[in-house]
From TrEMBL:
Xref: SUPFAM superfamilies: Serum albumin-like (SSF48552)
Albumin domain ranges (all copies): 14-205, 206-400, 401-598
Protein name: ALBU2 protein
Gene3D superfamilies: 1.10.246.10
Keyword Disulfide bond set for record: yes
Keywords: Disulfide bond, Repeat, Secreted, Signal
Source organism: Polypterus senegalus
Leader sequence segment: 1-20
Coiled coil region boundaries: none
Record gene name: Alb2
Length: 606
């Protein structure tokens, strides 16, 4: 399957959106062909029909695809002159069993835009599914892939779409394309299939996790903090990427991006696609801006399939040659307080623009903290007898905050680069289990493994790109975590951090103390499943076993010291080394495990 074709289908739909005098369904069906049409419809069905199984949604997708094909016949139905969603809803509503099973019978009783809005509300109310993904061997994956490549892609689409009902189909189809390309590469070889899927699948898994977290983060931020925070974040990012643009131009660009975010987060994929397409066209139609840019100009020369991704991920342009090193007018002018009093938001917005365009090496969260810090300084200084003397020192304080933040990431990279990824993951498991001892092992493992993958990726970049990479991705991960869970059910500290200012969330988690209020579980020998199986584990399984042990230890005693952890891990490693070295090791493990458990109990319950 040509996956670029699927992406073009999403764009083609928006190209015809709103033209009621054309048979748009036939046009799109002809442009994308049957396979592409079917894939897009499959995503939409999986997101809207949570009670329908894979086989049922596939049959429904085939029925809708057949109806779309009929739109190209001699007597097209009225739905053919609307869009694919209207056509799909008509087919769904034609089956009382499917409509009733998925609780959309009330929507089917409506017509036109009322029906569409009803389906949207239904989609928004679908609870997020946290399905435990079954682990298949490389051999099993390749058997499915070789037997039917479309089924292989379809199973991924079904599973992922049900867990992410609000995600735009564009992203899911891109993910499915990458999953299919990975299978095609690995299944072409005869040996080491598991290794291939694990090693070559790492960048695919990281990409899917990163885009998913980013997508969910921006929607969670827009819902929790509103337009002001989203727009400020986009002002910072746009100013970094387009330092030649004026403040008014950046404000307009940021407002347009913000508007598209709220549309896309509503779950209406058609309006989202239309808005995204318009945003790309508007960006590339601004000759006055493009003539002053490098990377935007390059992106706008690409095909419509490539423009959006290019613009979203483009590098910052070079700063204008005449741009001063510091934001002089905001720290030296005598009338700063007058301007601040005349319009606080406008003045701080101007500061954010000027500071951001000078500092592409900072994360948007850092820039928002700097703007908030500057605002706090002015609030304090403008109430003093000599405001200029007071706010003239603001730049030094802001620079110190930047250095503290950068130093933290450099220290984390030192661990990743010198001690290895596993050491960093274990450190994070200890850290996050101590502050969230009631969280599940799967939850702790998911967040800490993802943190490890993020830091491994970002630490390989130049120092100038370290903070934007690491803090952006880690913040997305925390935003996703706060949105997917009820923080109050974990503990009050986590709840407080999830409710903190957006730009301060990560620092809040960083400063959080171990949870000493939640009652620890009873000590149990079952928490230490150490058997002869550890001798033959793969590196990946061995890391999981070590991480599970750390999790069990720390949740029993969240205030455990690193020295105490070293005592236990040294004991565990010595046990493994001793028993794995003997031929008949079952008895050894039984004896040594009992001794290790007794030692652990004394240390953890003291």
């Amino acid at each position: 399957m040509k996956w670029a074709t699927l992406i073009s289908f999403v764009i083609l739909i928006s190209a015809h959106f709103g033209k009621s005098d054309r048979n748009r369904v036939c046009e799109n069906f002809s442009d994308i062909k049957e396979e592409g049409f079917k894939a897009f419809i499959l995503v939409a069905l999986c997101q809207n029909l949570p009670q329908s199984g894979f086989e049922e949604v596939v049959l429904l997708a085939l029925e809708i695809t057949a109806a779309a094909g009929a739109c190209c016949g001699e007597n097209p139905s009225p739905d053919c002159f609307k869009n694919e969603i209207v056509l799909s809803q008509s087919v769904i509503c034609a089956s009382n069993e499917i409509a009733n099973k998925n609780h959309v019978q009330d929507c089917c009783a409506k017509a036109g835009d009322e029906r569409h809005q009803c389906f949207l509300e239904h989609k928004r109310s679908i609870p997020k599914k946290k399905e435990v993904q079954k682990m298949y061997s490389g051999k099993e994956k390749c058997e499915t892939f070789k037997n039917n490549r479309l089924t292989y892609a379809g199973l991924f689409i079904y599973s992922f779409s049900r867990m992410h009902v609000m995600m735009h189909p564009f992203n899911i189809l891109v993910f499915a394309g990458k999953i299919g390309a990975l299978a095609e590469e690995c299944c072409a070889q005869e040996e080491n299939l598991d290794t291939c899927f694990y090693e070559k699948g790492r960048p695919v898994r990281n990409y899917i996790a990163s885009v998913t977290a980013q997508s969910q983060s921006v929607c969670a931020i827009s819902k929790k903090y509103g337009e002001r925070v989203i727009k400020a974040k986009k002002v910072a990012q746009s100013s970094q990427k387009l330092p030649q643009a004026t403040a008014d131009e950046i404000a307009e660009i940021s407002q347009n991006i913000t508007s598209s975010i709220f549309t896309c987060c509503s779950g209406d994929s058609f309006k989202c696609t239309k808005k995204m397409k318009q945003l790309i066209e508007d960006s590339c139609a601004r000759d006055d801006i493009i003539s002053r840019t490098k990377h935007l100009a390059q992106c706008c020369k690409l095909s419509i399939l490539e423009k959006g991704y290019c613009i979203e991920n483009m590098e910052p342009d070079e700063k204008p040659a005449d741009l001063s090193e510091k934001v002089e007018s905001y720290i030296k002018d005598a009338d700063v307080c007058d301007k601040f009093a005349a319009g606080k938001d406008l003045f701080i917005g101007g500061f954010l623009y000027e500071y951001s365009r000078r500092h592409p090496e900072l994360s948007s969260q850092m820039l928002l903290r700097i703007a908030k810090g500057y605002e706090d300084e002015l609030t304090k200084c403008c109430a003093t007898e000599n405001p200029p003397e007071c706010y003239g020192k603001a730049d030094e304080k802001l620079h110190a905050a930047v250095q503290d933040n950068l130093s933290h990431f450099q220290k984390m990279c030192a661990i990743v680069n010198t001690e290895g990824l596993a050491a960093y993951v274990k450190l994070m498991v200890i850290r996050y289990t101590s502050i969230m001892p009631t969280a599940s092992f799967e939850g702790i493992r998911t967040i800490t493994y993802r943190m490890g993958e993020i830091m491994q990726e970002c630490c390989a970049k130049d120092q100038s790109k370290l903070m934007p990479c690491a803090e952006e991705k880690l913040s997305d991960l925390l935003d996703e975590t706060c949105a997917e869970n009820d923080p109050a059910t974990i503990n009050k500290n986590v709840e407080a951090c999830c409710n903190d200012f957006y730009s301060h969330r990560r620092l809040c988690f960083l400063d959080m103390k171990p949870d000493t209020e939640s009652a620890p579980p009873e000590f149990s020998a079952e928490s230490f499943p150490i058997t002869e199986a550890v001798c033959t584990m793969s590196d990946q399984d061995s890391l999981t076993a070590s991480v599970k042990l750390l999790y069990e230890v720390v949740r029993l005693k969240p205030t455990i010291t690193m020295e105490q952890i070293k005592t236990l891990t040294d004991g565990y490693n010595a046990l493994k080394a001793k028993c794995c070295a003997v031929e008949s090791n079952q008895q050894c493990f039984e004896t040594e495990r009992a001794a290790f458990i007794n030692t652990s109990k004394d240390l953890l319950t003291a």
